[in-house]
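We both want to read discrete structure tokens more fluently, so let's practise on a single case. Would you write everything just below, so we can both look at the same thing?
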Amino acid sequence: MALMVEWSRSDVDSDGVRLAVFRAVADTAQQTALDQSRGDESRPVAILVHGWPDSHYLWTHVAPILAATCDVYAYDTRGYGDSDRPKTTEDYRLDRLARDLFAVADAVSPDRPVHVIGHDWGGIQTWEAVCTPGAEHRIASYVSVSGPNLDYADVWLKAQWRPPSARGVRDYFTQQACLLYARFFKIPRVSDALVGAALSPRRWTRFVARTEKVDPTQIVLAPTFRQDVRSGLRYYRANLSRRRRPPHARPTSVPVLELINTRDVALRPPLFSQTDRFAQTSERRVSHTGHWLPLAHPEKLAADALEFIHAHHSERRTPASGAQQ
């Protein structure tokens, strides 16, 4: 089991939304070393982005491993944890979530590109950021864990019918069946009430532990979990409706590593097969693991991420022209 982590908090403003940002420190000795190395451009800056229904607590076991060689930050995305919770669904669109990531990157690493690891909706919103024109000036690399690019996924879904094949149709319906819960989450008020009532911290811990086949003590939840469960449903409503978000597959020159989990309860491996059509530099690593890799197998995730981060780390400073936010 990885070390537990201490978090040092600061706040970042993103278009009037206050985001709680946390710097990871494993222990007192490491804090002293980090303070001495602050500004050391040989150390990559890594930003960790969680999904639903988590918070920065998701990275409790991963962060201290990364912190041995990186400056590590995580933040509660809008609607979660200690960050602000905007009231309207439109406030949770992917373009606004991408601007949040850029705001955090500018705050914690104004002079150097950052490396990003995103999980679940944290991965989906990071895809939006890395596909923003000029993103390569602010994001040096991206590790995606169970967080597909929604536009690339749409390309894959359509491809299963052009022309249809037995395998393609099977993969299509298997993936759609795995995402039935997402259709329910898009129903206002009904899903708020039922999900809020059903998902207590204890029940969620049991579910994840059973699904991932791990000790329940490995599952770390925020004190705000009950609020986060309901608030996070706005992500589904803001971004999974064609009317709200027409598909638009865009390329990216940011190096991308996708960690594919064959036992993922929500996202099947074929869904990620279109990435190399759009990402100039992309890698895929497949393992017999589940959706909550940061909690169940933090050492594996950290090892894969560190190898990729250091392979793409550069000590160059950020050019004057950055991403178009």
Residues 94-108 form the longest helix (15 residues).
